[in-house]
Write a structure and sequence with these properties.
alpha/beta, nine-stranded mixed β-sheet, 8 helices, globular, single chain, about 280 residues
């Protein structure tokens, strides 16, 4: 791309980003993206940061931009890197999702699930694990804190957009409270082994009794900080002055071939809103 075209592209990109109030970013299938495959991120946070920066930069440099496309919601995606699932292969694949909420809000869950279904060309996600934001008052999680998000997940199960729902980092007491209250029970609970080298015996016993699958993960409590997210957006936008953006949610998906246990596709969906000025 010559310097004149680059200047035009940057001008159009800045115009679109300045006008938009929301942006939705899809990294594409990371299994196939050579630029990102060459890197070995040290943590999920670093991987997400690199993905946001690379996807935004690639979108700006390759997408045909026009001021006629001004919209309140701007979609960043790399079409050739997207790995939609065909109807013929759907039964052979398991689509698992973890949803990291950075703000409380039931509409965020519905929006994220619908975007995942649309992106992957499926009508239903096989499992969704929720990682809600921590309580704003600094206290530990409580059932009251979890209930609004869980009710939205239950509604999505009833509408058949999700098959099974799970939790993340609940101890035995909170998992038991949720299980007793919930109309649709959690099918799994993720445990971070960085803070817990051995599964707590009381959690293991409860999960076994009520057929809840215990899974492990290495995600930090905060997948990406507000500052790191803003830095990744600015770097990806090639230092264009595009304003400040507030992260709403991050959805990470894995598409696994059931018979072989291998990951066919993996990626992130990210939603952010422009900070009011």
């Amino acid at each position: 791309m010559d310097s004149q075209n680059t200047t035009n592209t940057n001008t159009e990109a800045k115009m679109l980003l300045s006008h938009a109030k929301t942006f939705r970013l899809h990294t594409g299938n990371l299994v196939n993206r050579s630029r990102l495959k060459k890197k070995c991120p040290g943590s999920p946070s670093e991987e997400l940061r690199d993905c946001i920066q690379a996807s935004l930069s690639e979108w700006i440099s390759t997408t045909k931009l026009s001021s006629k496309d001004l919209t309140d919601t701007l979609e960043f995606s790399i079409p050739e890197a997207t790995d939609a699932i065909t109807p013929e292969e759907r039964e052979e694949l398991k689509v698992s999702v973890k949803l990291f909420l950075h703000e409380s809000g039931q509409s965020s869950i519905k929006d994220a699930v619908e975007m995942a279904c649309q992106t992957l060309a499926v009508s239903q996600l096989d499992s969704v694990i929720i990682a809600p934001p921590g309580p704003s008052d600094g206290h530990s999680q409580s059932l009251a804190h979890l209930q609004p998000a869980w009710e939205e997940l239950e509604a999505l199960v009833r509408s058949k957009q999700i098959a099974a729902i799970g939790t993340s980092d609940l101890d035995k007491d909170l998992l038991e409270q949720l299980y007793k209250w919930a109309q649709i029970k959690p099918s799994s609970n993720q445990v971070n082994l960085a803070s817990c080298c051995v599964m707590p015996p009381d959690l293991t016993a409860f999960a076994k009794e009520f057929d809840i699958q215990l899974l492990t993960h290495n995600d930090p409590k905060e997948l990406i900080s507000a500052d790191t997210f803003q830095e990744a957006v600015r770097a990806g936008a090639q230092d264009l002055n595009i304003g400040d953006w507030r992260l709403e949610w991050v959805l990470r998906y894995n598409v696994i071939v059931k018979s072989r246990g291998i990951i066919k596709s993996k990626g992130y969906l990210v939603s952010a809103k422009k900070t009011s000025t």
